[in-house]
């Protein structure tokens, strides 16, 4: 297979990626680089990982034919239902895999960063499952606005550290987790929540999420008699659910890919999280990628209604995809996402996470042929976002009746 878009031996995707870490983490990161592929490819790991995905996470997730939405958009629309996973999103696919990896490497303490708290909950969940000590770093601002997830993490037995540096949001939580890792490199395994961080994390997370497209292949074969779609659509924060959605199709030119990033108030304003539109080359959390930064290289705050897409960087794999033109990247603004969330709810009875609603909003921006097979990943469920939807209903009305 032609490997233009996956990681090379040096940990790069084109010009992006690498492992830019402090000296003290050098050994940790290199141990992981040496061990991750042998572990992931071992029969024992595969057996344990797939058993947990099946009986604990609830996989395979359904590929659902959305009849009413298909009629509205003039295509054959299938929804990949990651919202039905245990803990309500795709993130658990990754945490289940990484905790097995941590155990194989003899680590006893787990740390993680979290923004909205979804990755924190998914990490605390697998730590409870495995009886491992769990510490979560979360910006103080997010601790206040994502209270329920903080309580869930505590109930699961995790210790939550509010981070008070910078804007006190996800980016600062990542920095603090890396600092903690530097202090306890021996016993600690850092479970990274998206396709970001130093090599090999983006590749580890993409492989853990690749179960999504592995399933889409046989599910489409079953329903459509062919294993590939014409379009794949997913939302992008750091890039993990989209990486999983496109993973097994990345070198298949028959498949067009549309990624929806968070436009916030708009890419021509200061209130945006659309890194692939607005970012420039820089180093963020251990990797060279696209970053939203000031002229003198200070990382800017990201802005979006969706806490899960609220990151001023993007994984190196996606930076490369964006720059190489392999994927079509759309910026979806807050009000467009709110409308799309209501639309899916009223048309199909599925309340999507506000993150996933960004992917749904992309449907409006593409002209499909009636025979086009479109697979859209619903990365998570919207229970956590009901208040946000209700508070912003007025803005959504502008786009149409529902
Ligand atoms: C965290 C999250 C995202 C964004 O993260 P990616 O790594 O880009 O997938 C998207 N949707 C949901 C439901 C999330 O919880």
Helices and strands in order:
Layout: E1 12-13, E2 16-17, H1 26-41, H2 43-57, E3 63-65, H3 67-73, E4 76-81, H4 91-104, E5 109-114, H5 118-130, E6 133-139, H6 140-145, H7 147-155, E7 159-163, H8 170-183, E8 188-190, H9 201-209, H10 211-224, E9 231-236, H11 240-246, E10 256-264, H12 275-278, E11 280-284, E12 287-291, H13 316-324, E13 328-333, H14 334-348, H15 354-361, E14 373-378, H16 386-391, H17 393-397
Parallel strand pairs: 4-14, 5-6, 5-8, 6-7, 9-10, 9-14, 10-13
Antiparallel strand pairs: 1-2, 3-4, 11-12
Helix pairs in contact: 2-4, 4-5, 4-9, 5-7, 9-11, 10-11, 14-15
Pyridoxal-5'-phosphate is lined by residues 89, 91, 118, 194, 235-241, 308-309, 353, 355-356, 379-380.
Number of helices: 17
Helix content class: 40-55%
* Mean pLDDT over the residues: 95
**Count of DSSP strands:** 14
- Percent of residues in β-strands: 15-25%
Shape: globular
Radius of gyration: 20 Å
Largest sheet: 6 strands, mixed
Please mark out the parts with pLDDT under 50 across 5 or more consecutive residues, or reply none: none
Global structural class: alpha/beta
| Main sheet strand line-up | 3-4-14-9-10-13
CA-CA gap between termini? 46 Å
Bound molecules: pyridoxal-5'-phosphate
